[in-house]
Design brief:
Elements (H helix, E strand, L loop, with lengths): L5 E4 L11 H13 L7 H4 L10 E7 L4 E6 L2 E6 L2 E5 L4 E7 L5 E6 L12 E4 L7 E4 L8 E5 L2 E5 L3 E4 L6 E2 L8 E4 L6 E5 L2 E5 L17 E4 L5 E4 L4 E5 L7 E6 L5 E6 L4 E7 L2 E5 L7 E5 L4
Antiparallel strand pairs: 1-2, 1-14, 2-3, 3-4, 4-5, 6-7, 7-8, 8-9, 10-11, 11-12, 12-13, 14-15, 15-16, 17-18, 18-19, 19-20, 21-22, 22-23, 23-24
Length: 297
């Protein structure tokens, strides 16, 4: 499976606090286990709040340079600071896309939706305007999701992989990821865990923990070699070798909720959703400015 949309999924937002090693481990473990909950639709129905108050995932379309933001209130596009809602109001907990214009999502149905709860894996072939059921309806709520060269990988309490979006195989190594990141034309997948950022070279079937792997809340690929991530304290990190090693960029954000990245003219461009809105860097994470403030929709 190939795609050219750069996708990322959410690591749950955490309160601003100083976390020791034990606290960070517990924080990531709670996040990883959260998808096992199967709440009623009435409990998960989106409420009237800022669209950016609860961001679950983001992606950048390299053809249009449009930022896609998957939220508790559905899918939004951000272009030159303008925010527009696309399609129905569903709680999109996981979000990814492929090169043929398909979007994949998971989560919970919104008010008036005929989708089951949880929605399992759903897809859109019209830019998010409508969604169709693919598989695991009423069974899976993939809070962590990505699409690699090997197919869709998602975590709903069990790490699962599908080459066609319909039939699923459980990964041989059952890690507990808070966040998954992949690229369309690569089998490499990154997973944030309480042990550190783990790495797979076979689409998520097997995993290794690189030496000195940092504990990050979420990661995203900009290209096949370059990945970015955010630590629990908001410190931004970058990897130039597809997640084998990491270094701090010098930039920080507060209360990160989701991340995505894309190549720039010279440096890496990074978007991070926070409690304040969407922060943007065009200097590989050295500095950030607010692209869209929360409530601008």
């Amino acid at each position: 499976m190939t795609q050219h949309l750069i996708s990322a999924t959410k690591a749950h937002r955490y309160p601003r606090m100083a976390l020791g090693a034990a606290g960070v481990a517990g924080l990531l473990l709670v996040t990883a286990c959260a998808p096992q909950e199967n709440q009623n639709a009435s409990d998960e129905s989106p409420v009237q709040e800022s669209s950016f108050a609860h961001v679950h995932g983001m992606a950048v379309d390299p053809e249009t340079d449009q930022l896609l933001v998957a939220t508790h209130n559905g899918l939004f596009t951000v272009e030159e600071g303008t925010v527009e809602q696309v399609g129905p109001v569903n709680d999109l907990m996981g979000f990814a896309a492929d090169s043929e214009g398909r979007y994949y999502a998971s989560g919970h149905p919104g008010p008036g939706s005929d989708l089951p709860n949880p929605v399992g894996l759903i897809e859109s072939n019209d830019g998010g305007k409508t969604w169709q059921e693919l598989s695991r309806q009423g069974e899976s709520d993939f809070h962590a999701m990505a699409v690699s060269e090997e197919g869709v990988i998602g975590f709903d309490g069990t790490l699962r992989i599908s080459v066609n979006g319909q039939e699923w195989t459980e990964a041989g190594d059952q890690i507990q990821p808070a966040n998954l990141a992949a690229l369309p034309d690569s089998p490499v997948v990154l997973a944030t865990t309480q042990e550190g950022v783990q790495r797979s070279e076979d689409g998520g079937y097997t995993w290794t923990l690189p030496k000195d792997a940092p504990v990050l809340l979420m990661t995203a690929f900009a290209d096949a070699d370059t990945a970015v991530g955010v630590a629990p304290d908001g410190e931004v990190h970058i990897s130039r070798d597809a997640g084998l090693s990491w270094e701090a960029t010098g930039g920080t954000v507060t209360e990160p909720g989701a991340i995505t990245a894309a190549p720039g003219d010279e440096d890496v461009r990074i978007w991070i959703a926070t409690a304040e809105g969407v922060e943007f860097s065009d200097d590989s994470g050295a500095s950030f400015s607010t692209l869209v403030e929360a409530g601008e929709n």
